[in-house]
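Hey all, quick one. A colleague (J.T.) asked me to put the guanosine-5'-diphosphate job into the tracker so the inputs and the structure tokens live in one place instead of scattered across chat threads. No bug as far as I know, just bookkeeping. Sequence used:
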Amino acid sequence: MNRDYPLERVRNFGIIAHIDAGKTTVSERILFYTGSQHKIGEVHEGETTTDWMEQERERGITITAAAITCFWTQSTEPDKKDIAKKARFNIIDTPGHIDFTVEVKRSMRVLDGAVVVFDGVAGVEPQSETNWRYADEANVPRLCFINKLDRTGASFENSYASILERLSKKAVRMQIPIGLEGAHEGVVDLLKMKAYHFEGDKGEKVTESEIPENLVEDAKKHRHELVERIVEHDDAAMHAYLEGKEPSVEELKSILRKAVIANQVFPVFTGSALKNKGVQLVLDAVVDYLPSPLDLPPVKGINPKTGEELVRYASDDEPFTALAFKLQADPFVGQLTFFRVYSGTLEAGSYLYNSATGTKERVGRIVRLQADKREEVKKVFAGEIAAAVGLKDTRTSHTLCSEDAPIILEAIKFPEPVVSLRIEPKTKVDQEKMGMALKKLSDEDPTFRVTGDEETGETIISGMGELHLEILVDRMKREFTVEANVGKPQVAYRETILGSSEAQGKYIKQTGGRGQYGDVRIRMKKMEPLDPDKKIAKNVTREDHFEFINNIKGGVIPQEFIAPVEKGIREAMSRGILAGFPMVDISVDLYDGSYHDVDSSEIAFKIAASMAFQDAANRAKPVLLEPIMKIEVVVPEQFMGDITGNLSGKRGAIEGMEERGQSKVITAKVPLSEMFGYTTTLRSMTEGRGSMTMEFDHYDVVPQNVAADIIASRK
Ligand code: GDP
């Protein structure tokens, strides 16, 4: 079976936006225009296709990054039926809310390009900057779409200026609007020097005409600028241009395409998704300027067996390599595992190798999600995105490959969860269902963790923020019908040590019959960062926050008791030493001990190890750690003093103050514990005119006096 679409006509892209900028509406229009959807669903009616889940509809935000496939023939193609002229779009949904930036980061890994949507009244907003930065980090080529030009107060000029000023000087306008606010009717394309209007109920008919008289001068001026900005990227064109020979529109497009793919230019388009203006031209631009998988460098990975570096090109002839980037429960087919194929092909019903777990799995069915249906596919090819049904052990960020050509692609890095809460099932029945529900949800979302408190038997869930947990609890109640009592959100504190120590743990019991005997000696210190040039020694197990070194010589502790020692230490670590929070970044060296031929047992060594750990930790300067958040507050100037004063009172460190348009922007680092409910405080301090964003920055030691209170409250 051959591929149904040439790879150069495939576009894997995402739509990235600040919440409320209009991402859902833009996606809606795209699905409508690409013909896979037959009516336009308005967001407020809760009919959109990308927002599958109920609570997303209620909140009007998109949480999950599902991939949707659709097809597009450029408005300029005369023969729309000719399949060779069609492009296949795999649109990867990305959420706008800060608590879900992990989803944005995750999707950046698998998309090849993005359309960034802006609100034409507000211009660049704080979240747009965060997302832009993530896209920069991942080198994702971008187009900009300034939306909502029909709104009162909309300004293409101001929004465009805010992009240049706050995001990138490499942005360049491709269009100018025809009319604003109530009079917004279309756009002028500066390359072609034509006006475009969108007729029909849903703007489905794109018409081309001469530029309105009053815009001709403006259009000429901006075209001049655009052409200069394009020819800069091609020496030959630049020379010709300087000699007065302007390249053709086709030549300009081809130079621009290269520059966009190289992240040298960000073309800016405009319109109004709600009023059906301009979206089709953005889709044309996706085809013209965003890369196909062929335009990108090959992916890199390592051979899990030899550690050798490998590359894979986007070709069907290479060995199969894919990245699982999203697990999603689907009401019709069960669990879907979305994956991006980097090289090779995969057939439904065949086996693949998961190099992260080292296991083989059978792919049942392969589906592609379209706006209104699930299309079953027999085979997926290099560069494509699809979802597999039937994978059992595959999680987000696992590499899938063929067994005879194993490879591990660089894993997606997820931030640590910083907020947690206690959750208690209402009845026995709920208890069972809750366990299952939480497992499913944490399988889907790597930033959502579930842990148990052994002493109280309570369950603790942790995530990226208050809203993140609220939504997950909501899903648990709704999708899995679990009744539960939910505690207040709490800071996810941690514990660590600043010093080093040694201790012996001895557990001996002699009560008639067979006794118990375990004896271990350990050294403990803060874990050092890994030297990248050094291989991890055979006798060391090392994870993100824990290192265990087995230095037992001459069998003073028999081999079979080493694993129980490590287990006892891990368990003691998870219980903490000061206030019951998990301990991190500790290195334990097991260097001596003794055993008894008859009385020694796994359990005795586990207990002895845990005793040694507690004793050592107590004497190694244990401290509490708390998450410190990076926040950005935007307020009108008159509130500046109050806000900075208030933040300083919250143990905050002000890092910067700058002007942005009419407002002041304050950046600061503040402990998370001081930030609960801050949006409400901010609103009341600024007459509702302040806004803020917050993201996790790092963990830091809690000051002594604050720590004492936390410890006392946990006793
Ligand atoms: P998202 O949060 O980025 O997905 O944004 P939505 O698509 O849900 O849009 C947020 C709100 O803005 C909704 O009430 C939309 O109807 C509205 N909206 C979206 N696009 C436009 C537009 O072009 N013009 C106007 N006036 N409103 C829009």
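Adding what we noticed when we looked at it: The pocket of guanosine-5'-diphosphate is lined by residues 17, 19-25, 43-44, 60-62, 96, 147-148, 150-151, 272-275 (CB under 6 Å). The mean pLDDT is 86.
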